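Researcher: Here's a chain I'd like modeled. Treat it as a single chain, no partners, no ligands.
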Amino acid sequence: MNKLLFLFIVFAFSSKAQQTDTFRVVKQGEERAKKFESAFVTLGGKTGGDITVPEAQTSCCLIINRSDLRITSYTLTIKGTGDLMSYTAIGNSLTNEMIVALGKLKPGAIFVAENIMARGDDGIPRMVSSLYFKIK
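Model: Modeled as a single isolated chain. Structure tokens:
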């Protein structure tokens, strides 16, 4: 289990907060490359890493960087001193259960916002990268 926690922390510090992807657009026989900003999510203005309990609790919601996407659901998994606890939210707001659970965390505990689903203006659901935090 400690190896898994270590991998979460390493991934959090090594992942890029923002990247640009390229895709091909074909319009009336004309092919061109178009760049767009990849979606990423923040909690309290952070994309992962160290966070304090008050910062985590007062962050009202997950914020996505693209105006054409909105978060529809996510799961918050918490590893404190006991077992893993998972809470699911519809929308981007922290639930009362999540806020209470975050308030009980001690330094060294970790939590992950995962299975983050966003829906675009086109109606297509997309999975967004997870957020990994450690309580400092």
